[in-house]
Each structure stands twice: as C-alpha cells, then as structure tokens.
Specification:
Blueprint (H helix, E strand, L loop, with lengths): L9 H11 L2 H22 L12 H13 L4 H21 L14 H17 L2 H21 L9 H23 L8 H19 L1 H21 L4 H16 L4 H22 L13 H17 L2 H22 L2 H4 L6 H76 L4 H29 L18 H11 L6 E6 L6 H21 L6 E8 L2 E8 L16 H11 L3 E6 L5 E8 L2 H6 L1
Helix pairs in contact: 2-3, 2-5, 2-9, 3-4, 3-5, 4-5, 4-6, 5-6, 5-7, 9-10, 9-12, 10-11, 10-12, 11-12, 11-13, 12-13, 12-15, 13-15, 15-16, 15-18, 17-18, 18-19
C-alpha cells in the first residue's frame, strides 16, 4: 500500500513558494505591503480630508501590475508604466491628493521598485534600441511625477538634488545589473564562468530571501530618511548599505562577515554624534534600522555555519559594538548627552539580549535542519548507489555469467569427446566462439552502463530483452549456451508488461545456467511460461539425479539471491528446491500489475 508523503511545515511551504517566485516579485510585494499600511494609515488620520489619500492606490496598483507583466513583455510593460506615471500625476494634481515621498520625491515605494524592475527587465531582455527608448520614457514619467504631483518650493532646494542623485544611482544600478545578466550566445570559458557565478548568486539569494527582503525594506526606508534629513544622512545610509551587502553575502564566509559588519556598525556609531542627523533620520535604540537587521542576520548566519563554541567570541564583539552605538547615540543626537539612565539602559539591554537569543535560536534551528537535510541527501545517494550496484551485479551475474558458463560447459564437453569424435569437438569450438562473442558484447554493454552511457537494468541491456517474451525464450533455448537440451512450454499473450517479461527472461536464463553448472548428469530441461489468473507463472526443471559437482571456477552463490531480488521488485513469489525424483525445480509467479504497484 503506498504511503502518503509527509505533510510540509509552514516554513517549508514558504521556502518552496519563495523558490517558485522570483526575488524581484518578493521585493515588489514587500514594497506594496508597506504602501498599503502607510497610505491606509494616512487616509484614516486627522490631517487633511479623510480617505483622500486612498486615491494613491490606483497608481500604485497599476505600476505593480506593469512590473509583474514586465517579466513576459518588458517593452510593452515599460510603455504602459511610463503612461501610468504621467496619467496618475495629472489625476493626483487635479484631485489635490497629497503625494508622499519615499526614495524619490512624490513617488511611493511601490512605484520606485516597479520602475527599477521594469528598467532591469528592459536592459536584460529588450533589444538595445527599444530598451533605450522605453527606459527614456520611464525616466520622463518619473520626472513628471517628481515635479508635477505636488508643487512644493522645497523641491527646488537641496531635496531636488537628492532626488536626482538617488534616481540616477538607481537607474544606473538597474541598467548595469540587467546588461550583466543578459543571456549571451557565446560559450567561451569566461561566459560559462559568468553564468556559473550568476547561478551561485541566485542560489544565495533564494537561500535567505526573508533576510534579504528585510534588508531591502530597511534600505528603502533609510533612503526616505536621508531624503528628508539632507546630506548629513548620506554617511549613515552608506554604512547601512554596506552592512546589508556584507550580511547578504555572509553565508560564504560567515566568520569574517560578522567582524566586517561589526566594523561598519562601529564606524557608523562613532560618526553619528559628529554628523548631527536631523530628527527625520530615525534611529532605533541608537542605530539605523537596516544595521539592526544586518546585525541580527549575520548572527543567524554565523551560528548556522559555525559551532556555537567557536562563534561566541565574534558574537560578543558584535554585541559590544551594538552596546557602544546605543550608549553613544540613543539620546546623543537629540539631547547632546550620553545615555546614563539606568532604567533606559536596562530596557535596551533586555531588548538586545532578547533579539540576540532569537537570532542564536534561529541559527541553531537552521543548522540542525541543514544537518538533517544533508543526512537525508547522503542516505538517498547511498541508497541510489546501492540500488545501482545491485542492478549491475544482477546484470553481470545473469547475462555475462550465463555466456561464460556456456563456454565452460562446451569446453568440458569438447575435452571429453575430442579424442573419440574430433568433429563434435570442432562443433563445440564453434559454439564456444559464439558464446564468447556474446559474452564480450554483454560485457561491453555493462561497461557502457557503468560509464553512464546506459542505465543499469535498462537501455543497452534491453537489446537482449525485446517486448516478445516467447521469442526471447526461444532464442535463449536455441543458443544452448547452458549445454543441456531444453524443451519449451509456452502459453503467453502478446501484451505482457515489458518489465515483467524482461525479469522473466532473466529468471529462466539464470535457472538454465544453474542447470548447466550443477546438474552434471541432466539430459533434458523443461521451461514453462504461462499466464494464469493475472500472474505470469514460470517453472524450470531438469531430470538430473540430484548429484551435483563443483563447477569450474566455483560458484558465487548469488544466483538464487539475484532471482529473489528480481521477484521481490515485482512483488512476486519464488520457490526453489529438489524434485522428489531428483533434479531441481525453480518456480516463480510474477503479478502482471507489478509495475503499477511499485510506482505507487
């Protein structure tokens, strides 16, 4: 009875969904979720007309849809995105809907992310001329939104410079990333290496998509802080971006990455009191939000990759840096004094210890899961190797040993009869030659299978087993390699399952080989193959007296073992033993629906 697969955990389902979705989709959905919360909160507050902010949603959802459609038709999506920016600019201006700023003035986070993704897909997939034209249209649409949605004299001061600078950096990054990822036709070593590196990067991103998503959101939020606080926030933003990048790459070298992040956080903490950022640049516990997420993530990655006994000194260093940043900057940039209040220090220490414990717990859980997954993979590889070895062993024993046994039997007969009748010896030599050629061909097929050119138990070996079991059995008996005259009794339909017929051929072949090996005085063997009651019934008997001899070269003792394995794979039954009047009997019953059961 087939076993139902184990139910997947929520984490496993989330990871599988993330693997199916592109990382850009996850970032877009995160930005959309942020805008939904932010705009809804603004629509329900008491500042200005109630619910008027909801008028931003049509433009936000339209740009998100264009970004999703850009995965299929980048040029068409880009044109619609540019038109949407211009149309909703007039819509917002006409209805006096208050626009809010994120990375760029008067543009929501979703619109910025959607525009970046459309530029990326255009640079990666569209023809250069088409990409240039559509990207230019998107830039024009973005400039129209920046200058036209909400007239504010502050835009003509330092804020406009920041918007243009951020916009240029984002545009350049999207274009460069898209051009680098463009598929290339050449297959030179450099191109192959680039593709390999791109694959490694993709696997790295997919392996820690929640962390990268949180870091991306944090960087986007700090872009907004920097836009509002002026140029004093640039150094903090640069430190946050650096910490986020190192954390995202930390799985490759986690022990070094945690020290680099600690250094970046220390630089940021020491520079903050001299920068005097405005209150618009929000610090959580004296640190920018992205740096907190980076510290949390790098602890998770180092605990996941390194035993805790070797990771704790580096974790202590990072914790000390976080403590320094909190003490220096929790109230410094507001009051100009260091944090000395015991109650506040205790609260910050409690929160920090709690976050550190959660990070270590997550890292230990992921480490345990990785170990379990590696053990499962190792076990699966071992089982596959064992199965392959057993299949090769059966083919070697059933096919090659059959021909070699025939050579030995014919050689023994030629030696005994050569002096009395040289003509019989000459005929035996011809049969020995044929058996040797067949043995050599079978050995070559086996070697090809072991080298990966054919799968063991199929492919090349199937050349000996056709879909007509009756014809295969007649050809086997006519070859006479086992050296004992054999009578066939067949009652077979023409539509036997191929795997059943192939296994039946091997069972009869091995049984006749054993007759030639062990039944020294047998003068006749009988092979029966018939279908009875939905089963293939096989029986091979000989008329020996039961006195056996040790065959030349010895007996490996694997003949019956291999037959039992073949029968067990098809959920059949096998019996073997001496007949009451002497001789040996091998009998098997193979269900004709065995393939369907094993697949289940």
């Amino acid at each position: 009875m087939p076993h139902s697969p184990p139910s997947k955990t929520l984490a496993a389902r989330a990871t599988e969904l993330a693997r199916r979705l592109d990382m850009s989709v996850l970032v877009l959905l995160a930005a959309l979720a942020f805008d939904l919360v932010f705009v809804t909160d603004a629509a329900l507050d008491n500042a200005g007309p109630r619910f008027i902010d909801l008028g931003l949603f049509p433009g936000i959802f339209t740009m998100a849809a264009c970004a999703l459609f850009a995965r299929k038709r980048a040029a068409v999506a880009g044109v619609f995105g540019a038109l949407a920016l211009m149309f909703f600019t007039f819509f917002i201006r006409y209805l006096n809907i208050p626009a809010y700023s994120s990375v760029l003035a008067n543009l929501s986070i979703t619109e910025v992310v959607a525009g970046i993704e459309m530029v990326y897909f255009l640079a990666r997939r569209a023809r250069p001329g088409v990409a240039f034209a559509v990207i230019s249209a998107l830039v024009l649409g973005a400039l129209t939104a920046v200058f036209g949605r909400e007239f504010d004299s502050r835009l003509y001061a330092s804020s406009i410079v920041q918007s243009l600078l951020f916009g240029f950096l984002l545009l350049a990054a999207a274009v460069v990333t898209g051009v680098v990822g463009r598929p290339r036709r050449e297959r030179d070593p450099a191109a192959v290496e680039r593709l390999r590196n791109m694959h490694r990067f993709t696997e790295l991103v997919r392996g820690q998509w929640p962390l990268i998503g949180m870091l991306s959101i944090g960087v986007l939020i700090e872009f907004g802080y920097t836009y509002e606080s002026g140029s004093r926030g640039f150094p903090l933003l640069a430190c946050s971006i650096g910490a986020a990048a190192v954390t995202a790459l930390s799985p490759r070298r986690p022990r070094d990455a945690i020290l680099v992040v600690a250094g970046i956080l220390l630089l940021s903490a020491l520079a903050t009191p001299f920068l005097h950022p405005s209150h618009s640049y929000q610090l959580l516990g004296g640190m920018p939000p992205t740096q907190i997420v980076a510290a949390f993530g790098v602890v998770v990655n180092v605990v996941r990759a390194v035993p805790l006994a070797r990771a704790w000194p580096r974790i202590v260093v990072l914790s000390g840096v976080v403590a320094v940043g909190s003490v220096l900057n929790f109230s410094q940039y507001r009051t100009g004094r260091l944090l000395t209040d015991p109650m506040t220090l205790g609260m910050l220490a409690t929160v920090a210890v709690l976050l550190l414990g959660i990070a270590i717990a997550i890292g230990l859980y992921l480490r345990s899961r990785d170990s379990e997954r590696a053990q499962v993979v190792k076990s699966a590889v071992t089982d596959a190797q064992t199965s392959e070895r057993m299949a090769l062993a059966r083919e070697l024993h059933d096919v090659v040993a059959h021909h070699v046994t025939g050579i030995v039997v014919q050689a023994q007969a030629a030696r005994m009869m050569g002096e009395k009748n040289p003509e019989l010896a000459f005929e035996a030599m011809g049969r020995i030659e044929n058996a040797g050629v067949e043995a050599l061909a079978a050995m070559r097929r086996l070697v090809r299978s072991m080298r990966g050119d054919a799968q063991a138990g199929s492919g090349e070996f199937n050349e000996q087993a056709t879909t007509d079991l009756a014809a295969d059995l007649r050809r086997l008996v006519d070859a006479g390699n086992h050296g004992v005259p054999t009578k066939l009794e067949l009652n077979l339909p023409p539509d036997l399952p191929h795997e059943v017929g192939r296994s039946a051929l091997r069972l009869v072949q091995e049984s006749l080989t054993n007759v030639g090996k062990h039944a020294s005085d047998a003068t006749e063997a009988v092979a029966l193959a018939e279908v009875v009651g939905g089963e293939l019934h096989l029986r091979v008997t000989d008329n020996g007296t039961g006195q056996t001899h040790r065959p030349a070269g010895g007996s490996g003792g694997y003949g019956l073992v291999g037959m039992r394995e073949r029968v067990a794979l098809l959920h059949g039954r096998l019996s073997a033993g001496r007949e009451p009047n002497g001789g040996w009997r091998v009998e098997a019953w193979l269900p004709l629906e065995a393939n369907g059961e094993t697949d289940g």
